[in-house]
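Quick one, T. Sequence first:
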Amino acid sequence: MTSFVPPLTRLVLALCCLVSLSVAAPAQTLHEINKANGFHQMLTGIGPGFSAAVKSAPETPPQKVQDALAVAMEGAFDANKMEAAIESRMADKLTARDLADLGSFYTSPLGKQVTALEIQASTQEERERKKIEGPKILGELPSRDPARLELYKKIADDLSAVDTGEAVALNMGYAMLSEMLGAAGKALPDDQIMALLRQRSEGLRRDIEKDVMDSVAYIYRDLPLDDLRRYEAFLASPAGSHYYDQMQVALGAVMTDEARSFGHRFFVALGYRKA
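Structure tokens:
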């Protein structure tokens, strides 16, 4: 089960970028903001992304395991359920001024422009291209455009993409690992489980940081420098920072709960736990 952690980090990376998607539309409530963000659409991709991450493990699981995974995935990472849970966790976390400022940005020309770039980069074809072109673009920036490189670093910091990616990956890994150990009758204290997980996930943060920067370099490669500065300023603003901070905390907590629930159903399907 711990071999699933590295592929999961790539899924978490995608989520860190997708959570910043925005669609131009008036929005004054949290639900409207999330609807304007295309947040629900992002959530619908978590289940398929999780399945793909599991299937990308180095060795093909035995048929019994594949069947159990299929059963466990039924109802797992349900977008409507997660959206409601996330919004419940975020209730009253943002002020009316925050929501008004967020709505204003999403309807601005810059908001529309950034949205178009982010949505375009989220397609399957563009994701594959990003894996190849992102590192190339990033590698040229230190000598060709250091100012742009610094802005990319600030954007990644503003979104807390690396910290969040690492925390969510470890928490999801913990949830699944604790279920595995419990099913095997080898339950361990929390600190020992986390120590084991960190040992098995050596290099996790480095990999996440590289993937984040590759993605940012690719997505915003055609955004003029002045617009990039304005976008970074929005992310660093009270409204932008409050929203993304609260959203990623809530998203991480809900995904961890879903991972734990998935792990339980998985071991029930394998016959190692009772329903």
